[in-house]
Write a structure and sequence with these properties.
Rossmann fold; 2 domains; three-stranded parallel sheet; six-stranded parallel sheet; globular; 14% strand; multifunctional enzyme
Length: 282
């Protein structure tokens, strides 16, 4: 079996086109473009690259971006103060704190400073609770992108067994909650899981979000399964051993070009959502 690749780049382009039309309508209605503010703490090269990429995609899709860069020596109080300032600014529709932040900044405290209305990355506890309950919210970008990708390939999660490897607050945990709300049966695997290969072998849909290159071996994959690899590591490696997994899976995301493009596309779409909601409540 040779798996079909799930093309996140193509789907992201479609979402960007839809977002651009909506952003232009917001701009026409209120006289200024939707705005995403990014907060970058420190000088990590990968984080800086991600922020520049998001700013470029914003510009291409009718959304303004505002960058706030703070030194790595910043305290939690200094970072939260910067976020509060953006949150109080009526010209800012969405706020993204680039993670991870340097130690000893309390990342959770910084996230909780963002108001629910402007939490376009879906990182606050209020957003996580809303995702668990299936109530309206800005859904976490990578998990929401994964579900859009599955839907575009007609993978209906209802009744399927979804195995999530990883339980981070921004990826593993919310993608499992969103899958549960779609009526999947969800198993979370993590560093304390016993017999990981057996757990993975039971998955109709495997979502790899563990952050370790090629931890998941291809021979562990159930024949005909759907494999979503949310990892990205130097050399273009994911969390899954792609070549051998593709011999068993029915559908698989490439790395790069699978989950990554969808994350940014959803982020910008969420920002325009926030701008639209602001128009309604104004």
């Amino acid at each position: 079996m040779n798996a079909q690749l799930m093309d996140g780049t193509r789907l992201a382009q479609q979402l960007h086109a839809e977002t651009r039309r909506r952003a232009d309508a917001v701009t026409l209605n209120r006289g200024h473009r939707p705005c995403l503010a990014t907060v970058l703490v420190g000088d990590d090269p990968a984080s800086a690259t991600y922020v520049r990429m998001k700013q470029r995609r914003c510009a291409e899709n009718g959304v303004d971006s505002r960058a706030v860069t703070l030194p790595a020596s910043s305290t939690t109080a200094e970072v939260t103060a910067a976020v509060r300032s953006l949150d109080a600014d009526p010209m800012v529709d969405g706020i993204l704190v680039q993670h991870p932040v340097p130690v000893p900044v309390d990342e959770r405290a910084v996230f909780e400073t963002i108001s629910h209305a402007k939490d376009v990355d879906g990182v606050t506890s209020a957003s996580l609770a809303a995702m668990a309950l299936g109530t309206p919210t800005h859904r976490s970008c990578t998990p929401a992108g994964i579900l859009r990708l599955l839907d575009s390939y007609a993978v209906a999660l209802s009744g399927l067994h979804v195995v999530v490897v990883g339980r981070s607050e921004i990826l593993g945990l919310p993608v499992g909650l969103l899958s549960l709300c779609a009526d999947a049966t969800v198993t979370y695997c993590h560093s304390h899981t016993q017999d990981l290969p057996t757990q993975i072998g039971r998955a109709d849909v495997l979502i790899a979000a563990v952050g370790r290159p090629q931890l998941i071996r291809g021979e562990w994959i159930r024949a005909g399964a759907v494999v979503v690899d949310a990892g990205y590591h130097p050399g273009g490696l994911g969390d899954v051993e792609t070549a051998t997994a593709a011999e068993r899976a029915r559908l698989i995301t490439p790395v790069p070009g699978g989950v990554g493009p969808m994350t940014i596309a959803v982020l910008i779409s969420n920002t325009v959502d926030a701008a639209e909601r602001g128009l309604v409540s104004a």
